[in-house]
Amino acid sequence: RDLPFDTVVTGPIAPDTDWRHALDSMDTVIHLAARVHVTREESRDPAASFRRVNGDGTARLARQAEEAGVRRFIYVSSVKAARETTSGRALTEADPPHPATPYGISKREGEQAVSASARRMEWVAFRPPLVYGPEVGANFHALLRLVDSGLPLPFASVDNTRSLIARGNLVDALVTAISRSGVARQTFYVTDGVPLSTPALVRALALALGRRDRLFAFPRVMLAALARLAGRAEAADSLLCSLVVDDAAFRAAAGWSPH
Q1: How far is CA 206 from each of CA 2, 144, 197, 215, 242, rounded to the nearest angstrom?
Q2: Given this model, what pLDDT does residue 8 score?
Q3: Confidence category of residue 32, pLDDT binned at 50, 70, 90
């Protein structure tokens, strides 16, 4: 389809991708692309599949951006580069990262590659939590379909909180980071603001879809056990556990706030 800007096709993101023709005369790079899911054929070594794209592929792009004279490189990482869950308080940029999954580890490697490659080039890294909006995928889309189905959902007694960010707010944060001098060479969290519990999220989705929320209580420990038996432990964590981040640092440095 026709796009309102010039498009350069580079091919797959890999350790040997040649980005030079795409980087020529570029002032700013915003790197959002990543491997998020691993196909069944690659599941024997998911870490290698993630690293090839999110770690080594990002390193290649950052090095060539530095060589091309790019002024600022904005890298969209993930909250999973830091933690999978939180408890007690919100995560801040001062907390040491401890990624626990192949995806999270590869995104942390991407962050390190960008900062290591940048000598003259300024860099900014964002660790967004769950991003939602039109055409959302993965676990959020699965929950959306469940709510839309009208089936009873066993999350009424889930006592958690999770940070989220709307796609529009993330885009606005990225655009803001292009020109703000006070954000260079830093990593930031960015969110919509107040986190939501899973029951509150289900109620909000049901209201937007014109459905009843149909929540009922079921022991959390039983939900977690059933998810593990079904091979869906990671998806269950996103519904049962907390993952809250504090984005005060970016708001202060950039003068930014979500819509």
Answers
A1: 36, 9, 14, 10, 21
A2: 85
A3: very high
Report which residue type is found at 29: V
How many whole angstroms separate alpha carbon 38 and alpha carbon 73? 26
DSSP letters for 124-136: EEE---EEESTT-
Q: Report the alpha-carbon distance of residue 107 to residue 55 in Å, rounded.
A: 6
Q: Could you tell me which residues come within 8 angstroms of residue 224 by beta carbon, excluding any fewer than 6 positions away?
A: 233, 236, 240
Run of H or E residues at 239: helix 233-240
Give pLDDT tens digits for 9-26.
888 899 999 999 999 999
Are the C-beta atoms of residues 72 and 27 closer than 8 Å to each other? Answer: yes
> Kind of pairing, strands 28-31 and 72-76?
parallel
Q: What 3-state DSSP class applies to 86?
A: coil
Q: Which of 53-62, 115-124, 150-159, 227-236 has the lowest mean pLDDT?
A: 227-236
pTM: 0.91
Residues catalogued as catalytic: 103
The CB density around residue 175, as the number of other CB atoms within 10 Å, is: 12
